[in-house]
User: Which sequence fits this backbone?
């Protein structure tokens, strides 16, 4: 079917050694890599899930600077304890005006309010599930900074697996379009593993590198601080924090934000202010940051810094600064796919799930190899099936809990529900085989997702006010049907010529 | 997303699809057209990137175009699934197996230590040395060095887990860590 190889010949001994390393690393980190890929694919839609959780919130396409200031001032009256304030301006992905206040540890406190287009605060926002699934992806709900370090290490392991995978696959181009299913289990899984791996390679390299970087940033900065700032981490971060007003804790009314918008408009007429951060809003030493993103750039936006008197202190340089600052500004949008609208988000989710399936097929190849050699790893087969197929149920049950639980329910409730569901599923290997576990959990996962949509409709109606909620419900129903059908349906395959 | 964005996206997708189909046609049959199909396929993908870049701007356009090319490739492969004949054991069925190493506990632990903490320290050392010693704005040096850390660590991990001569790997990693961290602490300033 194919002609002369165009890939340079690599010594079989080298390939075999690389395969051994690839296999050892993949197996050691399989569960964590799979979980990070799965949670990351879902986290791409964090903003959509926030809208789905509260589809009655007012949708606001644009707001005037005056309305943003009214919302901020009203928020400060409702939350006079605020130490940090985040005013979220409407964007295409999240068309809402929000005011969020928080305090520092140890007495951590936070509240989030939604406002209408005129800046009137209407109701408190509830996005517990969106926040839960996001934190599960970027720190596994472990204490800071250890969760981030672990995720960074998983990113490094994934990147390493990609490198060894490419080096141990000298027929990458020759087999580029070959996908044959059926026959020996190991060959089928290897075909899936290699094809999806090759075609998603640029994406996998980028997300694993940026993910590892984001997770390890605190560690890298910490060691740098040790080397050149006598351990003072603040000095290292100061290089990226931009101008800061002189600390002045004297009491002062919250600053007026209106004129600051005009300054940004003059400086960057095409930029859109995405959010405003006010540090110490009740002090004379308040620091105000307006983040404005320009069209056509992958960036979290340039940050304009002001003092409490409205005087400009300069910019952070995310769009106008050094190359390093520009790259740093693009890392998170590139990692999460938050740069090209819904189509790019869908591509990220599909390729992210592809990466999860590559991890899964890698484990399946190892298991099939063990079977072929007459040494089946039955317990591991059962545990693996239980773990990966527990997640659709765990996600559906936690999301349902978030919809039904009272707003003042314990912060850790969703984590306990997710952990309990996953743990219960992982007990199944004690009483049944891998195939039965897979079938039961996929069916239950599908049913749980359908029930979740039912709960959402019961709470917010068949057609919620926010159309994105309807789209999310439709997608969840399709996923549920796909899960259930996958237990009974096998696609028709073209016979091999 | 506007209608115009969708229109531009369709053009980029068309280039991506033509490229993938041309390359698949080249892969299917080795005849006189093959070099033309290969070069045409890659040129078509280049066209997708150029169109994306001109429509959405430098970095954003390339990112969107590459995402679409990846996705299209996966779709073309998935839409051409074949059923493997049960008895047919093509040459690829005899794919290479991982090398069968003897299981020695101390080697396993040493390999884990090399791939984890030692490769990590060496990578961190090189990243910091770049951040501290190279010329240019400190923010750029820090970000470049920081981005290199996971990449170098991953490379070191892949190498130490694959190389049968682990003492050699240990010596190289210790050397790299000592030199790079030494340079960093000796300079002792980011300025």
Assistant:
């Amino acid at each position: 079917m194919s002609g002369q190889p165009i890939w340079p010949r690599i010594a079989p001994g080298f390939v075999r050694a690389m395969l051994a390393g690839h296999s050892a690393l993949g197996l050691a980190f399989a569960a964590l890599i799979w979980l990070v890929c799965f949670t990351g694919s879902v986290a791409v839609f964090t903003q959509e899930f926030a809208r789905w959780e509260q589809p009655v919130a007012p949708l606001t396409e644009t707001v005037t600077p005056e309305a943003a200031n009214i919302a901020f001032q009203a928020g400060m009256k409702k939350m006079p304890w605020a130490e940090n304030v985040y005013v979220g301006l409407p964007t295409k992905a999240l068309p809402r005006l929000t005011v969020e206040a928080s305090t520092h540890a140890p007495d951590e406190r936070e509240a989030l309010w939604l406002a209408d287009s005129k800046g009137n605060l209407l109701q408190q926002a509830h996005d517990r599930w969106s926040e839960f699934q996001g934190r599960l992806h970027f720190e596994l709900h472990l204490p800071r900074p250890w969760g981030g370090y672990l995720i960074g290490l998983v990113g490094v392991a994934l990147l390493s697996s990609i490198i060894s995978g490419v080096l141990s696959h000298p027929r990458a181009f020759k087999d580029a379009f070959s996908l044959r299913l059926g026959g020996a289990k190991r060959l089928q899984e290897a075909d899936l593993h290699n094809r999806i791996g090759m075609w998603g390679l640029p994406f996998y390299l980028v997300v694993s590198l940026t993910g590892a970087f984001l997770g390890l940033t605190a560690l890298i900065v910490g060691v740098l601080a040790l080397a050149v700032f006598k351990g003072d981490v603040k000095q290292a971060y100061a290089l990226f924090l931009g101008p800061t007003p002189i600390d002045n804790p004297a009491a002062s009314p919250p600053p007026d934000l209106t004129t600051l918008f005009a300054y940004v408009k003059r400086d960057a007429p095409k930029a859109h202010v995405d959010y405003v951060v006010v540090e110490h809003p009740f002090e004379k030493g308040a620091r105000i940051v307006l983040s404005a993103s320009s069209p056509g750039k992958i960036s979290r936006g340039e940050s304009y810094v002001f003092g409490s008197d409205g005087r400009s202190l300069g910019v952070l340089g995310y769009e106008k600064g050094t190359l390093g600052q520009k790259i740093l500004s693009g890392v998170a949008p590139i990692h999460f796919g938050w740069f090209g609208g819904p189509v790019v988000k869908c591509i990220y989710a599909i390729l992210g799930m592809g990466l999860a399936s590559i991890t899964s097929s890698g484990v399946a190849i190892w298991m099939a190899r063990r079977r072929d050699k007459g040494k089946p790893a039955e317990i591991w087969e059962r545990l693996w099936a239980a773990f990966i197929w527990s997640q659709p149920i765990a996600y559906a049950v936690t999301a349902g809990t978030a919809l039904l639980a009272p707003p003042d329910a314990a912060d850790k409730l969703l984590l306990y529900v997710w952990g309990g569901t996953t743990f219960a599923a992982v007990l199944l290997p004690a009483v049944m085989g891998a195939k039965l576990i897979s079938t039961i959990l996929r069916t239950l996962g599908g049913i749980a997702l359908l029930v979740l949509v039912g709960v959402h409709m019961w709470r917010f109606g068949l057609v919620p006010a926010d159309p994105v909620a309807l789209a999310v419900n439709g997608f969840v129903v399709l996923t549920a049907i796909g899960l259930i059908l996958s237990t009974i349906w096998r696609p028709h395959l073209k016979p091999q010529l | 997303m506007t209608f115009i964005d969708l229109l531009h996206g369709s053009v980029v997708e068309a280039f991506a699809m033509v490229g993938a189909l041309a390359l698949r046609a080249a892969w299917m049959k080795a005849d006189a057209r093959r070099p033309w199909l290969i070069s045409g396929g890659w040129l078509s993908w280049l066209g997708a990137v150029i169109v994306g870049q001109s429509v959405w701007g430098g970095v954003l356009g390339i990112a969107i175009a590459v995402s679409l090319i990846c996705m299209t490739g996966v779709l073309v492969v998935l839409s051409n699934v074949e059923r493997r004949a049960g008895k047919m054991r093509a040459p690829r069925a005899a794919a290479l197996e991982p090398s069968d190493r003897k299981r020695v506990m101390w080697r396993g632990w040493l390999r884990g230590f090399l791939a984890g903490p030692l490769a990590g320290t060496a990578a961190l050392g090189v990243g910091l040395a770049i951040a501290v010693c190279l010329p240019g704005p400190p923010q750029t040096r820090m970000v470049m060095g920081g981005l290199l850390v996971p990449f170098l660590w991953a490379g070191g991990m892949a190498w130490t887990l694959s190389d049968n001569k682990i003492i050699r790997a240990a010596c190289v990693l210790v050397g790299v860590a000592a030199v790079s961290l030494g340079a960093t602490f000796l300079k002792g300033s980011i300025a």
User: Anything to note?
Assistant: Chain B has a mean pLDDT of 86.
